[in-house]
# Entry
Amino acid sequence: MEQLKTTYLHDRHVALGALMSPFGGFDMPIQYKGIVEEHNAVRQRCGVFDVSHMGEVRVSGSDACRFVNHIFSNDIAGAPDGKIFYGMMLNADGGVVDDLLVYKVSDDEYFLVINASNIDKDVKWIKSHAGAFDVTVEDESDVYSQIAVQGPDAERCMRDVLGMDSSGLDFYTFETWKVYDGDPDIIVSRTGYTGEDGFEIYASDERISEFWDMLVKAGVQPCGLGCRDTLRFEAGLPLYGDELDEDITPLEAGLGMFVKMDKPEFIGKDALAAQKAAGLARKCVGLKVEGQAIPRHGYEVLDAAGNVVGAVTTGYHSITLDENLAMALVSAGHSKVGTGLQVRVRRKVFPATVIGKRFYTPNYKK
# Structure
């Protein structure tokens, strides 16, 4: 059995009575008081997450911009320093190696934030494509710990509890704080994975521990990965391994806005162009499911005649909306909003209707 990794905050989670479970190779907190209470705390007030399991890669050198644009679906060329981009790294067939955030430090330096379960794979993949470029690729996943402060009160908590006035940050921008000698720079970004306003903080293990303790002592609700998933799901945000994977393209996932086909080139571009020209065979959609059954990952989606036309990628009883909802990958011919479908839950089938997959309107800073 593979030995699970732990974050620097692990002992604090245990001391708080968190339910711990494996995730992405780490022993992570799933919930403290309960998923519903933590979910509502983020929607209504503020919560703090340990997301130190995420990976960080720094790309630097004279070809850094050109190289990152080569391996990334979005277009970072000409962006101002301090800008953040969401997008994907793709394989030659257009499938998703990983989805990630790219932070532009300067024209010659970029900070990539990748998924915990893909760290080793991603670093190897990035380095394998770097040979023709004047760049240095450094895995800094062990350099940084990370917390996410999320919710409508996040800005106030950052200021009043941590002494960080980040009110000037726009959505998807960041700033660095050079505070402690010998420590890596503290990075504060106005980003998150909840559909609410919020910030993510990258710093040394010791600094993140201090920030966590200050926030918890001030009454900010510690939140586990359970409500992190219910929150991102309601906001229509994808999870790698569910809505995205090596055999699911960003066009099929409905994330074409993060693929800039007008760039000169990037890995996977030709495959996506061919897929677009031929027409998508399947699409990711939202579903509203009738009855008491909760759709789960992998459950079959059927047409009105009972033919299998797809599968659920994520499903929950929405805490905020009090409805049974799902995201599903279905054949393109059954993806139009309003289409009547069915979901098989064990031995029964339940009516479902295709709806937009952003179930909850995010409250990001305008």
